[in-house]
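User: quick one
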Amino acid sequence: MSEFLQIRNVTMKFGELLADKDVSFDVPKGMICGLIGPNGAGKTTLFNCIAGYYAPTAGEIFFEGKRISGLPPYRIARLGIARTFQVVRPLKEMSVLDNIMVGAFLHHASAAEARKAAERCLDLCFLEEYRNKPAGDLTIGNKKRLEVARALATNPKLLLLDECVAGLTSTEVHDMVQVIKRLRDEGITILMVEHIMEAIMPIADKIVVLSHGEKIAEGSPSVVVHDPMVITAYLGEKFARKLAEQKAAAGEGGAL
Amino acid sequence: MQSDSIKRAIPWMLSLAVLALLPVTGLLRGSFLSHVLVMILLNASMAQAWNIIGGYAGQVSFGHSVFFGIGAYGAAYAVTNLKMTPYPGALAGAVLAAVLAVIIGYPTFKLKGHYFAIATFAIVEVFHRLFMIWEDVGGAVGLDYPILKDGWRNFSWSRSKVGYFYGALILFGIIFSLVRALEKARFGYYLKAIREGQETAESLGVDARRYKLAAMALSAAMAAMCGAFFAQYNYRVDPSMVLSLDMSMRFVLITILGGIGTLWGPLLGAAILIPLQEYTRAYLAKLGPGVDLVIFGLIIILVMQFQPKGIMGMIDAARKRRRKLAAAGNEHEGGRQ
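Assistant: Done. Structure below.
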């Protein structure tokens, strides 16, 4: 089961800057796995290593038992890993449907079939009414869902979502969470980088926490949020100590 | 779906048929008008060939005069030195042009930025010099055709331009049909995706470099076919006639004026610029050489000021405005009910 996505001792250096240091974890098939951490923790860098945009300085990444680290992005996409970009990248001059069709063409040679597949993704991501609009004209919330729809059209086994709810309004966040749940129900494994805890905690099966390029915690959401190292990383040492004291006090007083 | 694509093909087939019937109407009896029409079809075909790589794939090439020249020399060399029909020469020229396109594209498509454009710029000068000193293809004097029998076998007509008109129409029909098919196919979608965002395209499984190379090779081969026609039409070829930056710019400017990355842009651009050029050349020649180029430049500056997407962009904008007005009108009526 853990043969699905394996990240093994991945280190990524840019000159002297150490973005990821010896990171290892597995993403089992069928899960929603969250990758969280403060700004500059190395989440997006790790994503770019998985998707082939960087070749890790050291370490290896395996997908379904096959070593994928070092392969170019298009080969990784063909193996069944699709990604979205943190800063949305609509193919601006093309219509929303055409954007998604580009993804669908990966497994459908004929335009008619690609269109049919793209229309399904259009529906799945609540984009039907924008079908013929130029992608550049969409609002940010729709552009983010277009990223997902386009990646989805490549019929991936693993979907990498890079901060797909960042910068959205609460309704838009709600829509996106609906979309992600739908995808999981379709059997797609999801690895998502996220900043916004409220979006990821309720849906993730597993959370991996990075801080300063190192993995500091891994486990189910309820375990991870109570991890002292995670609290320290997110809220600072001082606050973490205070919180621990408070908890201790509350524990003594209110224990049943 | 099948019947849809047939329906879509009807206007296109009709326009080709109408063009094909033009000589029968007697409208082309004046040889100047036929000359202008031949030049429009040829230049539209050239611009469309360029449009594949420059418009759809978004990789601006300033080197298309080289591919054009290779095709022209291929046909001329077959006729003058090898005493053959021009067809094998044109075909060899197209293949060589495609190979050269890949040789230029292979290293430069790996790099980001303007390296490809710069490399294509450089080859024009290299090939001009090369053909100037290459004695086997006539050096600076070029190749002059002998007198040949009229007809399709020699692709040569001395008495009327109707033969050339049909030749140009076939060339135009082939290249436009090709791009028309490409636009609706995976290949066309991938090229546009690469233009709009190469990294995005790659994230969707597109081997961007391979597709750019394929587009470049196809574009170069088509440009070479146009060059072969040009040599046949002029009955001669020399380095300055074909291998020049002026000629390269023609590919670029006609497409930009008409609408880059659109199916009909190249035809619109040629239909506007070529008559203008031919008539100013004929009637304003006494003002000095290059008057046509000055007017050429002025028109392009004017159009670009208003609409960077060229004339096709203007047409699209007008259509959209009309649709919006219509929609507003409907809403208004709906409100009253």
